[in-house]
Amino acid sequence: MASSDPVAVIGLGNMGYGTAASLLKAGIAVHGCDLSAAQRGKLETAGGKAFDDAAEAAAGCRAAFVFVVNDAQAEAVLFGGGNNGIVDALPAGAIVVNCVTVPPAFAKRAAERVIATGFGYLDAPVSGGAVGAESGQMTIMGSGAPESFDALADCFDAIAKTVYRMSETPGDGSRMKMVNQLLAGVHIVSACEALTLGIKSGLDPNVVFDVISNSAGNSWMFGNRIPHVLANDYTSKSAIDIFVKDLGIVLETGKDIRFPLPLAAAAHQMFLAASGAGLGGEDDSAVAKIYAANSNTKLPDGGNS
User: Fold this and answer.
1) Mind giving me the DSSP string for 179-204?
2) 187-236 residue pLDDT tens
3) Whether residue 204 sits in one domain with residue 82
4) Structure confidence at residue 81 as a pLDDT band (50, 70, 90)
5) In the structure, what pLDDT confidence band is assigned to residue 305 with cuts at 50, 70 and 90?
6) DSSP letter string over 254-288?
7) Which end of the chain is more exposed for a tag (fewer CB within 10 A), N or C?
8) DSSP tag of 239
């Protein structure tokens, strides 16, 4: 297939839209698919071609990057669920790039099915958030055939700062993402716990943030998420329910391989509590609200009385 052929991006949420935007900035034609008319309109404003059907979006594309929410949605997008899947629409020689955080076993099964139809498949979950996606600075944890990576070098150059080729075995990318999500989820919860403890003990939350940001207790998640709490802005960049799912994958895998995960389990309980309190669609930093509610602590109001 020609490098001038379009690339499909299925799912135009925070990560998917950012990926599509980065591809467009690099001069790569994009077919985007999303159920949201607003997201489709946003893509068309940026110069892409938008569809509300994944198979229609994939038709004529040399690759399809999948950015839906979970393995059930990925299954429907790939193989059909009410409508034809993208493997029924992609042209010969196309490559599926599954960027969804899914159980490693699903990644392996999906790869086998896609490859059996004659297409390439990369198990390629991503990290970097919406900001990393839109700036073309994501980290990709990929596994699959080297020729598939090579064929999409221009796309990866446009969307990622680092592409790790974990192995040629689909599933290894998802295993690596699972490890990353364990750390990310635990770090978010511990950051919110630490900040709320500081506030409850009488410290100025802005001072807590400043001191920790320049001390050994800092983490990437503390520096990235705590400003959301300080600003009282829980607009979702990565939602609570994402970590309910992702840490669920971690725990299920641990159970399967008989590996203890006490910290991941504790963090998962806090995200479950936040989701059960109706915060599932808010930014994952909203887990601080659970700590605040349980300790009668007042979180910052962002300057709003």
Assistant:
1) HHHHHHHHHHHHHHHHHHHHHHTT--
2) 999 999 999 999 999 999 999 999 999 999 999 999 999 999 999 999 99
3) no
4) low
5) very low
6) HHHHT---HHHHHHHHHHHHHIIIIITTSBGGGHH
7) C
8) B
CATH number at residue 113: 3.40.50.720
For 227, phi and psi rounded to 5 degrees? -55, -30
* DSSP label of 150: H
Structure token pair of residue 12: 């135009």
Coil, helix or strand for 122?
Answer: strand
218 burial (CB, 10 Å; 0-12 / 13-18 / 19+) is middle
Domain that holds residue 190: 175-295
Residue 125 sits in the same domain as residue 77 = yes
Rounded Cα gap, residues 119 and 124, in angstroms: 15
Inter-residue contact 19 to 10 (CB < 8 Å): no
| Residue 177 is among the residues annotated as catalytic for this protein | yes
Q: Report the predicted TM-score, pTM, of the whole model to 2 decimal places.
A: 0.93
On whether both 39 and 149 belong to a single domain, the answer is: yes
Q: State whether the Cα torsion 64-24-161-126 is positive or negative.
A: negative
**Choice among 42, 161, 177, 245 that is catalytic:** 177
In a domain, 227, yes or no: yes
Q: pLDDT (tens digit, 9 = 90+) per residue, 285-300?
A: 999 999 999 999 999 9
- Residues 101 and 245 sit within 8 Å (Cβ to Cβ): yes
